[in-house]
Amino acid sequence: MRNVLCLILFFIAFAFGLHAQTFKPVKTGQDVIDNYLTAIGGETKLKDIKSIEITGGTNEKKSNATLFEYIGRKEFYLRSESDEINVTEAYDKSGNKGWISLGIYKEDMKDDYLKTFSIFVESSLWRIYYDHVKNGITFELKDDDIVSETPCYVVDVIQSDTELIETDHFDKTTFYKIQQDVGPWSSEMTANFGEYRKESSLGIMMPYRIATKLGRFNITNYNFNTSFDRGLLRKP
208 in a domain, yes or no? Predict the structure, then answer.
């Protein structure tokens, strides 16, 4: 009986070991970032991703909205349609230009907003993390915080030693990113993430719940490295 019990415990320990991830002790902001990249699949897999296509929607009493979002290395496009208003955001990084549409109102992106979207694209494709040396980026560990009852590490993303370009919150247990504040207009570009699941096609962890100023979206599908119609970036 004792031998049987020991054998059962061995297999339990072995099973947990197969799924366990090894995180480094956190002493610096770089440690948190390294653990984050490990948690979501590893730097090698992330470097193979050139674009992300996201579809989803909301299911709220006040209004329902659909979401289509494309994030590429040279472009960002978002279209959200709801009962109340349709929203479009388009950013062409190669030309450093973009525009926003709220219903019938359309406006070109100005300097600070363009910079914010440029940072957002780099962050969404993880390039500010794995290419940080090339881009002169460092990570500063701040005081811990709590987001939606989850204890978090807080990391400031600093460019050229002085400029704060992003602040990220990471779950202290899983190291998943659960909040992101991008750029000088952080209140305009705050996003919260949850319900991470493994994408079978690439074996990386992606959030299936995303909350922004546009609403709380449940993600239904991710596609990676797909083509994009750059004609959508032209302001109508």
Answer: yes
Phi, psi dihedral angles at 37 (to 5 degrees): -65, -40
Which positions ≥6 away from 185 have C-beta within 8 Å? 112, 113, 116
> DSSP per residue over 1-23, as a string?
-HHHHHHHHHHHHHHHHHH----
The single-letter code of the amino acid at 212 is T
SS3 of residue 104 by DSSP:
coil
Angle at 42 between CA 77 and CA 121, to 5 degrees: 20
Distance between CA atoms of 35 and 53, rounded to whole angstroms? 25
Q: Write the burial class of residue 162 (CB in 10 Å: 0-12 exposed, 13-18 middle, 19+ buried).
A: exposed
Domain carrying residue 55 = 26-227
pLDDT digits (tens, 9 = 90+) for 183-224: 765 556 899 999 999 998 889 999 999 998 888 999 999 999
Q: CA–CA separation, 204 vs 74, rounded Å?
A: 22
Within 10 Å of residue 231's Cβ, how many Cβ atoms? 6
Q: What is the CATH number of the domain that holds 214?
A: 2.50.20
Q: Is residue 5 part of a domain?
A: no
- Report how far residue 221's alpha carbon sits from residue 160's, in angstroms, rounded to the nearest whole number: 36
Q: Is the pLDDT of residue 20 over 60?
A: no
Work out the number of other CB atoms within 10 angstroms of the CB of residue 8: 10
Q: Whole-prediction pTM value? A: 0.87
